[in-house]
């Protein structure tokens, strides 16, 4: 018997059903994928923000070994997760398992935020964007001479964002010359001007630098400053990216020179706000995000 149902053209409803997740959570779900979650404040901060936005969403923290990342991402997609965050080595290893990447993630090879689209998860990098957003509260980065300390994932992200914003020149101050040169090349690909500065000892910030971003993940073991602030002027905005290494002495001395200072927690809060905007289309209250982060970290 001829099966006319099987031979019929699929309806719009059938086409939509074919692209639906295998199963769907009752509530929208986001997740952090990390090899070690540890004392990561992301879940606590995001859930506080979702409640404040009156959204009945959930955020999970999941420990995923590196060799299980692809399976974890497939599982998130199948179960209808809206997106999430990546931490640790997953930031570097996820790109090949995603539908596509945003521009900064594509250029740097680093993904920290996942957003669900019709064709799959899209990987974004919001780390450098967060720095630029808080810097803009003090001055426009366009046309200024900037400096980036470090040459790792965070440095790559902020260097690309500074170049996209039109900084006149970006000094890449790096201990590892090869890694630093790779950051310089990223800037040059965006038609920006860049110079590699060897970081062999305390580096003196030139007085014409209008923005300096500490994108390193560690402080001096002795507590000594890794930069000299003698020529630092009030026109400079100094930002620290890593909230786990607060650099209190650096920020205090820079503020005494009249510079605008941005601590790592302010950058983290802005990053969470950007992520929430990408996931929900809504604007989270920065004060609430910071209070939640400080509560979690017992600051």
Verbal overview:
Helix 10 (248-256) links the parallel strand 13 (237-240) and strand 14 (260-262). The N and C termini lie far apart (74 Å). The model is unreliable at 1-19 (pLDDT under 50). The strands form three sheets. The protein has a six-stranded mixed beta sheet with strand order 2-1-3-5-6-4, sandwiched between helices. The chain has a six-stranded parallel beta sheet with strand order 9-8-7-11-13-14, sandwiched between helices. Strands 10-12 form a two-stranded parallel ribbon. It contains twelve helices and 14 strands. The longest helix is centred in the C-terminal third of the chain and has 17 residues, at 264-280. Helix 8 (153-164) runs parallel beside helix 9. 38% of the residues lie in helices and 20% in strands.
What is this entry, summarized?
By secondary structure, the protein is an alpha/beta fold.
Q: Which descriptors would you attach to this protein?
A:
Rossmann fold; alpha/beta; six-stranded mixed beta sheet; globular; 299 residues
Number of strands: 14
Reported for the largest beta sheet, the result is: 6 strands, mixed
Computed CA radius of gyration, to the nearest angstrom: 22 Å
Helix content: 25-40%
CATH architectural type of the largest domain: 3-Layer(aba) Sandwich
Q: Numbering strands along the chain, what is their spatial order in the largest sheet?
A: 2-1-3-5-6-4
What are the secondary-structure elements, in order, as H or E? Answer: HHEHEHEHEHEEHEHEHEEEEEHEHH
| CATH fold category name of the largest domain | Rossmann fold
Distance between the termini: 74 Å
